[in-house]
């Protein structure tokens, strides 16, 4: 069986390929009949049975099928048969315009980094698929440039990118692609004062909150004020620092004809008002008509402003709170245009008008009183007192009872609680009155609290006090005496003490004879910080009794170690980020209270010296970087974080924080060998491997993202390169007019959006016989 190779351009008829050329001996013997035995799928080709001419019947598309393998037979009437394989290679024509992968690109880049890669595809091959990118807007070209071959944009604007191929004729993408790039700020500029030295002066007498210099420094204390101060001010953005010297001198004003018409101006503004309000128009005498004057406020306090030219003094809309400050004394200064300028000052007193924005509150409630059952109607039992922070009518208070039990009344103005009718001890011996205090303004505010009235029979036992407040540490020893309760019985009989709450015996016990209270089970501040007990003293003969309240406040002891929010912490951080970058914030809590729950974080030094690369804020637990991390040096850190409380005997806990450094495209790819030498047989078939180019990348995740491309030297389309593997193969066996050697420029790129790294190389190959192809590598 024979083989024959034919090349054919798409869209043109296949001609001048006859089987007589392939079977030369059959023509002179007898009539020969030709036919296609196989490989003619979809009936694309036709062969003339007499002449052996192969032609096309249908449209041929290189992008659908680039080659065909036909088995052709030639037979005679005598029964002789011969077969041959015909290879038909379709030559690509530039019939496909490039297409953008996206219609619009949005990229974010850090300063000084390559931001974005614009990608487009062309289904054609070789030169027909060689794309050239260009930015259409001239304005954008002043800021950005684009690599015409790879579409990489390097150094916030929007512009349009167009792409064309290299075929004949040139074809453009149907529509350009829009590109929007936002430049991300990097902390690469240190803070800097506008001047290394500032000079300022303060007018005598100095006033508090006076602004001295624009950085801003204000006067805090005017007592014992010196004639001269020199301050050093430092500023930091967390990474960079700067400092400046501020020189402040105290000066006395020289009296001139330039004066304010009033030594003191007064104005008022309502509290809580958020709208700016004109408070006064300050006028000056001793100056010419329309002479330019400059007004300034020495101590604006962030609430007042003044027109620099007209002297209109106003509030700027920051709400006031009269209950915090009801008067502001503002110093205003005026200067004329003389050299040196004449200066005058005046005082503006701004009074804050009251608004009803506070509810009343009680001074002596809640409270408990004990009264005898023989008290007379009309007797005052207790006087409640409430006050209101507001003024005048906003502070007038009216008292009332939610429920008077048809026994009690309260004076609405004075707050006296009195009895309306005789008490019945047998009916009820304890009343809880809810007293309401309401102000008389609109809108009105109110508050409520309780007054407990205990009725005592003359024969009932009498406690030393109705309330026993106690403070007991939570680590008090078991069965320790914490209180001795005593009551007196007017009848002289023995008293029996007991606790009324059902669950009181869980933690406490009272001796029924002596009234000694002790702890029976451990107290825990974190579970319950207050225990309220009711102790009853009962006459052992008559059964008469009285009750008192015991409030046991459990004091915290540092008995709980801090607890981390997680058993372990893990996070990822990209390499190359600037010093001071936040890594992770660690949270912990402590069930104790006060200083016992104040936590301090620190990194524990380990063998890996992680503390050289990271630090932690002692209060917030925020871990930040101390050095720029490099994935190629260290891919993982194990940090040990310790947290301790602020107790007298501090308790600590520890946790591990696993920090994984992620790889960033910060290393360019590189070729493994500087030069490749290979040979190529001139009879090599299509697809024959010429050479495999290999490259490496220190960035672990980028090895599989390397792409190879023949950039130049392949005008005859004799070679094809696999963009992923780097294999260069022989691709055109139909044209044998090869040059003695070729210089192929190979492009190596790393397509990791948004960054693309490019390296060029020249490739050299040697043919086995008379052809020589040279491949050189370069960076």
Automatic annotation (TrEMBL):
Cadherin domain boundaries: 32-100, 101-193, 261-362, 363-463, 464-564, 565-671, 672-749
Protein name per Swiss-Prot or TrEMBL: Cadherin domain-containing protein
Membrane topology value: Single-pass membrane protein
Pfam families registered for this protein in UniProt: Cadherin
Organism: Periophthalmus magnuspinnatus
Organism superkingdom: Eukaryota
UniProt-listed GO biological process terms: anatomical structure morphogenesis; homophilic cell adhesion via plasma membrane adhesion molecules
SMART domains: CA
GO molecular function: calcium ion binding
